[in-house]
Amino acid sequence: MEAPTPLRVVIADDSAFIRRLLADSLERSGFSVVATAEDGDQALAACRSLRPDVLTLDLAMPGLDGIGVLRALRDEELPVPVLVVSAFSLAHGARAVDALAEGAVDLVPKPGPGDRFHTFLAELEEKVRLAAGSQPRYPSPTGLSAATNGNGHSRSARARTVVIASSTGGPRALAELLPKLPSPLGTGTVIVQHMPAGFTGSLAERLDRASSLSVREARPGDGLDAHTVLVAPGGHHLRLLPGGAATLSDEPTIGGLRPRADLTIGDAARVYGRDLLLVVLTGMGKDGLEGAHEVHANGGRILAEAESSCTVYGMPRAIVEAGLADGVYDLSALPAAIALEAGA
User: Fold this and answer.
1) Can you name the CATH fold of 161-342?
2) Which element (helix H / strand E) includes 306?
3) Contact (Cβ atoms closer than 8 angstroms) between residue 177 and residue 229
4) Cα separation of 98 and 238, whole Å?
5) What is the mean pLDDT of the chain?
6) Are the CB atoms for 172 and 137 separated by under 8 Å?
7) Among 77-86, 127-136, 142-151, 190-199, where is mean pLDDT lowest?
8) Fold of 8-132
9) Could you give the percent of the chain with pLDDT greater than 70?
10) What would the pLDDT profile of 310-340 be if each residue is shown by its tens digit?
11) Pairwise CA distance, residues 316 & 156, whole Å
C-alpha cells in the first residue's frame, strides 16, 4: 500500500526565524513545505504557481499584509485554504476577526512569553490538517450569490427566538448572514460562536456595524428582544434562565469548548419550546447535536447550512444525519429562510 501524499504547505511570515521554525516543525510531522515567503506578494506568487493544500499566513508583514493576501486570493478565486499564524492579543482581536471574516479557515496565535511551545506546535499541526480538508470560502465583494432551494417546507410564520451555533468558518458565514437579516427578527437572537475569550467582543462589534440588528456580547441579566442579537462571550458558557434572562457560567469546558452551544440550545429549548428556531452553521465537530435533540423534543424548528457553502461540514452534518433538520439551505438562502421561520 502506497504511503499517503504529504500535505503541501506554503509558509508566509516576515521573520526568517519563524519561517524556519514552522517549516522544520511541519516537515518533522510529515508535511511537505513547498515554499516560504517573507511578504504577501511572495505568498501570492507561491499560491499561484504551486496551489498548496494550505497557506500559513502572518497578518503583520511589510507591503501586502495578511488581510491583503486574503482579499487577493478572493479576487483571483484561488482555492487555497488559509490558516492564520500570527501574534494576537486582546487589543488585536479586531484584526483576528477581520481575517476570519475575509475567509481564513482558522487562527493559531504565536506563542508568547510563558506559553508552552509544544502546545502551539500541536495546535498548528492539527489546524493545518483541518484547513487542508476545508473548502475555502471568501466573501463576495459584490454581494451574495443567487439563493438555492432548501428542502424545508413552508410554514406559517410565527414569532420565534433564534439561536445560531457556529464554529470553524463561522465568522465569515455570520458576516454574510447577519447583514441580510431584518430588524425586528422574531423575539430575539443569540449566537454561540466558538472563539477564545477577548475575540467575541470584536466579532460582535464588526457584525453590529454591518447589520440592521443591534449586535453585542451578552451580559448577565440581559433579556432578548426582536431588535438585538446577543453573542456568547468567549471563555464563558451562555445560559438562559427560566423566563429567558441571560447568565454567564464559568463551568469547565465541555469537549474543550467554552462557550458550548449545546448548553445554550438546551436552555432555549426548555424555555421557548415550539417558539424556538435553531440554526446550525459551518463548524467542526458535533456541538449543537445534543441541543438539537432537545429542540426537536420540545417542538422547535431546526435549519442547517448546506455542505455547498460550509467551510467545514461537521456541525451541520451531524444535525442532518441525525434526521433533525427541518430545512437545509445554502448560506445565500438562509436569511430568507430564517426570516420566514422566525416571523420577521
Assistant:
1) Rossmann fold (3.40.50)
2) none
3) no
4) 24
5) 91
6) yes
7) 142-151
8) Rossmann fold (3.40.50)
9) 92
10) 999 999 999 999 999 999 999 999 999 999 9
11) 24
The residue type of 297 is A
Q: Is the pLDDT of residue 135 over 50?
A: yes
Establish whether the linkage from the previous residue to 196 is cis, with ω within 30° of 0: no
- pTM of the full predicted structure? 0.89
Q: How far is CA 223 from CA 166, 187, 274, 295, in A?
A: 22, 10, 19, 20
Cell 438555492 belongs to residue = 148
Options 86, 134, 167, 309, the catalytic residue: 167
Q: What is the pLDDT of residue 102?
A: 92
Out of 58, 65, 98, 287, which one is annotated catalytic?
287
Q: Measuring CA to CA, which residue among 187, 170, 162, 186 is closest to residue 278?
A: 162
Other CB atoms within 10 A of residue 129 CB: 17
Domain boundaries in the chain?
Answer: 8-132, 161-342
Q: What is the DSSP string of 199-260?
A: THHHHHHHHHHH-SSEEEE--TT----TTEEEEPPTTSEEEE-TTS-EEEE-PPPBTTBSS-
Do the domains spanning 8-132 and 161-342 agree at the CATH topology level? Answer: yes
CB 312, CB 130: distance < 8 Å: yes
Task: Judge whether 159 and 275 are in contact, CB under 8 Å.
Answer: yes
d(CA 179, CA 144): 11
Exposure b/e, 303-332, CB count within 10 A at least 16 = b: bbbbeebbbbbbbbbbbbeeebbbbbbbbb
Q: Please, what is the angle between helix 170-177 and helix 200-210, to 10°? A: 20
- The yes-or-no answer on residue 167 being catalytic is yes
Tell me whether the omega of the peptide bond preceding residue 6 falls within 30 degrees of 0, making it cis. Answer: no
User: Which residues are paired to 106 by β-bridges?
Assistant: 83
User: 92, 194, 237, 296: which is the annotated catalytic residue?
Assistant: 194
Pairing of β 246-249 and β 237-240: antiparallel
Q: How many CB atoms lie within 10 A of CB 209?
A: 9
Active site residue 24: no
Active site residue 65: no
Q: Phi and psi of 303, rounded to 5°?
A: -120, 145
